[in-house]
Design goal:
Layout: H1 2-10, E1 12-14, H2 15-34, H3 40-59, H4 66-83, H5 90-104, H6 111-131, H7 135-160, E2 165-167, H8 168-195, E3 221-222, E4 235-240, E5 250-256, E6 258-259, E7 263-265, E8 283-291, E9 298-299, E10 301-302, E11 304-309, E12 313-315, E13 321-323, E14 331-339, H9 349-352, H10 362-372, H11 377-389, E15 394-395, H12 406-414, E16 416-417, H13 419-432, E17 436-444, E18 447-449, E19 454-458, E20 462-470, E21 474-478, H14 488-491, H15 494-515, H16 519-531, E22 533-535, E23 538-540, H17 542-569, H18 574-588, H19 599-603, H20 609-626, H21 634-647
Parallel strand pairs: 15-16
Antiparallel strand pairs: 1-2, 3-7, 4-8, 4-19, 5-10, 5-17, 6-7, 8-14, 9-13, 11-14, 12-13, 17-20, 18-19, 20-21, 22-23
Length: 651
C-alpha cells in the first residue's frame, strides 16, 4: 500500500510548475516577436534577467524584493522616456516593455504579478504588429493567444490551491478544455474581420517612423555613401507579374538631373504629366506591386509606367511616380508599364541635360573627348559604356573613394567603385561629349517566385543607371556597371533560398489577402452577395431572399453556439454520466433511486435476483475506482459501459 501511494505521488505534477513553464514560454515568444528591434543592450538585458529568474526559481533560495523590482522598473521607464523623441516613439517603448517583463520575473509571483506579465506580453505583441505585421506576427499571435488562455486557467487553479498536484491525464484535460475558449472566438473573429469597415487611416501613425523601414533607396546620390544602399537583404517590394527577361528588370524610382561634383539631385519634377499621351511602343507588362514601408514618396515601377492605379499619386514626364505622403506602411498599387526599345522624348531634351558641375576637373573632360574623338554620338555612347564596363574598372562596395573629388579618384586613381561611381562617371562624360544624360535611381533584377507568381526585389538590388538622349533614337538606357545586380539565386545557399521562398510565399499571400484587405475588397465582396452569383446559368438573387437568408444564418449560428456551450461547459464528469445512465436503466425496471440512498443500498431494493446481481457488479466496479480517487481511464469506462449493457432490459 505504501509503495502504491509513493508511485501515485511520483505521477503527480505540481500545477505551479506547469504554470511557470507556460508563463516563461509566453514571455519568450513575446520577446522573439520584437527582439530584432530592441538593440544589443536590451536583448542582453532581457535574456540575462530571464536566465537569472529561472535560476532563482530552480533554487528557491532567494527572490528579489518587491521594492527593488519597483525601483528597477521606474529606472527603465525613465530611461525609455530619455530615449523617446518625437519622430520615434515606438521602439524605445517596446524595448522598455521587454525589460519590464524580465524584471517582473525576478520577484515572487502572485496572481497579480502573473496577470501583469501576461499584459506586458500582449503589449509587446501589439508593438511587434506596429513595427512589422508580417505573416510571422500571425504565428506569434496564435501561439501567445492560446498559451495565455491555458495560463489563465492554470492560474485559477493555482490561486485556489497553490500546492495542488494533478496526474498527467487530469492536467491534459484541463489544458485541452482551456483551448476551447480561444477556439470559440475564431469564427467570430473571422466574421468581424470580414464585415468591420476598413479605413486607410492609420490610427497609430503618430507613433512615428518606426514603421518606416530601413531604406536602400534615397532621393539623392552621394558618391561613396554606401551605408544605406546595397547592404540590406530585406525585401523592398514584391511585384506580381509574368516572368520576363532578366535584362528588362529595371525598376524606376527617381531621375537625377543635377550633379555638383559629389552628389546627384533631382530638380526637374515640377511638371505633372499624363503619361498615356506619350504614345510609347513596346511590350506592355502589368504589375501589382506590394511595397514595404521605406519612408519616402517614390513608387517603384518597371521601366516606363503609363498607368498607375493608386490614390493621390503624380506621374511625371520623366516617368517618375510620386505619392503625396511618405510611405510608412505597406501599400499595394497596380501598374501598366511599356518596355520600349527607346523613348522619343521632346526637342528640348537634347540641350536641357548637358550641364556640368562647376570646377569639374579638366582631366575628366579630356578623357571623354579622347575616347569619343571623331565619333558620331551613337558610337560615342557605346564607346564610353565599353570603356567603363569592359575596361580596367572593378565593381566594389568596400573602401570607396570618399574625397572632395571622388569622381577624379575613381577614374584616374582607384578605378573601383559601386554603381553610383560608374553611372556618375558615364553621365558626366556623356555630357562632356555633348550628349544629354541623366542618372536614374531604383532597383535592378529580382528573384522570381514561381509558386506565388511574383518577383522579390531586395534592398541589395538598389541600383543606379544612365539614360542618354539622341535626336535620332530618343532616350536610351545605358548601364556601365559590371556585375550590376545582386542575384539571390546565385549568392545564397540553395536550401536556405528554398526555405526563404517558401516562407516568403506565405508572407506574400498574408499581405495580399489580409493586410491589403481594404474597403474596396469589402465592397466588392458585398456586391457579389448583393447581386447574386451565376451557377450553371442560373442567377441566385441574394436581394430577394436576403431577409430569409439572414434569419436562417442567425438561427444556425445560434443553434451551433448553444450546442457547443452545452457540450463544452455543461458537460459533466464521466462518473456522473455513468451513474445517471445506470439510474435511468433501473428506472425502466420500476426502481427509482432516492436522493438519500447510496448505490449499494439502492441495489439491495431490487427484487429480481439476476438484475440485482448485474447491477451490484456494476456498482462494485464503479466504487472501486470512484471511492479510491482513481482516474476513469478509457478501458475502465469501456468496461463499465459493457456492464451497463448487461443491466439493460432485453427487448
Amino acid at each position: 500500500m505504501h509503495i502504491s501511494a509513493s508511485l501515485k505521488g511520483l505521477n503527480q505534477i505540481k500545477i505551479e510548475y506547469v504554470l511557470k513553464a507556460v508563463t516563461y514560454i509566453v514571455a519568450f515568444l513575446a520577446y522573439l516577436s520584437v527582439c530584432k528591434y530592441l538593440g544589443v543592450l536590451y536583448n542582453i538585458l532581457f535574456l540575462s534577467l530571464t536566465a537569472l529568474s529561472i535560476y532563482l526559481e530552480y533554487n528557491k533560495s532567494y527572490f528579489v524584493p518587491r521594492w527593488l523590482v519597483n525601483l528597477l522598473s521606474v529606472a527603465v521607464i525613465f530611461l525609455s522616456f530619455y530615449r523617446v523623441y518625437t519622430e520615434d516613439l515606438l521602439e524605445p517603448t517596446v524595448a522598455a516593455l521587454a525589460a519590464l517583463a524580465g524584471i517582473k520575473f525576478l520577484e515572487e509571483k502572485k496572481f497579480r504579478d502573473y496577470m501583469q506579465i501576461y499584459m506586458i506580453c500582449v503589449f509587446l505583441l501589439a508593438g511587434s504588429a506596429l513595427l512589422s505585421i508580417d505573416f510571422i506576427f500571425m504565428v506569434f499571435f496564435v501561439l501567445i493567444f492560446f498559451l495565455i488562455s491555458i495560463a489563465i486557467v492554470l492560474l485559477t487553479y493555482h490561486t485556489e490551491s497553490p500546492s495542488l498536484q494533478l496526474d498527467k491525464e487530469s492536467l491534459y484535460k484541463i489544458i485541452t478544455s482551456s483551448l476551447l475558449i480561444p477556439l470559440m472566438s475564431i469564427p467570430l473573429t473571422v466574421l468581424i474581420f470580414l464585415i468591420l469597415p476598413r479605413t486607410s487611416f492609420h490610427f497609430l501613425g503618430f507613433l512615428g517612423k518606426a514603421s518606416s523601414g530601413r531604406a536602400g533607396f534615397s532621393d539623392n546620390v552621394l558618391l561613396g555613401d554606401v551605408s544605406n544602399i546595397q547592404l540590406d537583404s530585406s525585401i523592398i517590394f514584391r511585384a506580381q507579374m509574368d516572368r520576363i527577361s532578366d535584362n528588362q528588370l529595371y525598376w524606376r524610382g527617381i531621375v537625377f538631373d543635377d550633379f555638383d561634383g559629389v552628389s546627384w539631385k533631382s530638380k526637374e519634377l515640377d511638371q505633372v504629366f499624363d503619361l498615356r499621351n506619350m504614345h510609347l511602343r513596346g511590350k506592355m507588362v502589368r504589375q501589382t506591386i506590394y511595397l514595404e514601408p521605406y519612408g519616402n514618396k517614390y513608387l517603384f515601377t518597371l521601366d516606363k509606367p503609363t498607368i498607375v492605379s493608386y490614390r493621390k499619386v503624380d506621374l511625371y514626364k520623366n516617368f517618375v511616380v510620386m505619392a503625396h505622403d511618405d510611405i510608412k506602411s505597406k501599400l499595394r498599387y497596380d501598374v501598366v508599364s511599356v518596355l520600349p526599345e527607346r523613348h522619343s522624348g521632346t526637342v528640348e531634351d537634347e540641350w536641357k541635360y548637358k550641364k556640368l558641375p562647376e570646377g569639374l576637373s579638366p582631366d575628366i573632360t579630356a578623357l571623354a573627348q579622347t575616347i569619343t574623338t571623331g565619333m558620331e554620338k551613337r558610337a560615342a555612347m557605346e564607346a564610353l559604356v565599353h570603356y567603363l564596363r569592359d575596361g580596367d574598372y572593378k565593381y566594389s562596395l568596400e573602401k570607396l573613394p570618399q574625397t572632395l573629388t571622388p569622381l577624379v579618384d575613381f577614374l584616374f586613381k582607384h578605378k573601383y567603385g559601386n554603381c553610383e561611381y560608374f553611372a556618375s562617371a558615364l553621365a558626366v562624360m556623356l555630357r562632356a561629349a555633348g550628349i544629354s544624360a541623366n542618372v536614374v535611381g531604383g532597383y535592378k533584377g529580382g528573384l522570381y517566385n514561381g509558386a506565388g507568381g511574383y518577383y522579390i526585389v531586395l534592398q541589395k538590388n538598389a541600383h543606379v543607371w544612365v539614360e542618354a538622349y539622341l535626336r535620332e533614337t530618343g532616350w536610351v538606357r545605358l548601364d556601365a556597371t559590371p556585375g550590376a545586380s545582386f542575384d539571390m539565386a546565385r549568392d545564397e545557399n540553395k536550401m536556405f533560398l528554398n526555405a526563404r521562398l517558401f516562407f516568403d510565399t506565405l508572407n506574400y499571400y498574408w499581405n495580399s489577402l489580409v493586410i491589403n484587405y481594404n474597403l474596396d475588397k469589402q465592397l466588392s465582396l458585398f456586391q457579389k452577395l448583393q447581386y447574386g452569383i451565376r451557377l450553371k446559368g442560373i442567377k441566385l438573387s441574394f436581394r430577394r431572399w436576403k431577409p430569409v437568408v439572414v434569419v436562417v444564418i442567425i438561427v444556425i449560428i445560434s443553434v451551433l453556439l448553444l450546442r457547443f456551450y452545452r457540450v463544452v461547459f455543461r458537460r459533466r464528469p464521466v462518473e456522473a454520466r455513468l451513474i445517471e445512465r445506470f439510474s435511468k436503466i433501473l428506472k425502466g425496471y420500476g426502481y427509482e433511486r432516492l436522493s438519500f440512498q447510496g448505490l449499494e443500498e439502492f441495489v439491495q431494493t431490487i427484487r429480481e435476483e439476476e438484475l440485482r446481481r448485474s447491477a451490484r457488479a456494476f456498482v462494485l466496479e464503479f466504487e472501486k475506482l470512484y471511492y479510491k480517487d482513481k482516474v476513469f481511464t478509457k478501458d475502465n469506462i469501456r468496461q463499465l459501459k459493457a456492464q451497463l449493457l448487461s443491466v439493460r432490459r432485453e427487448p
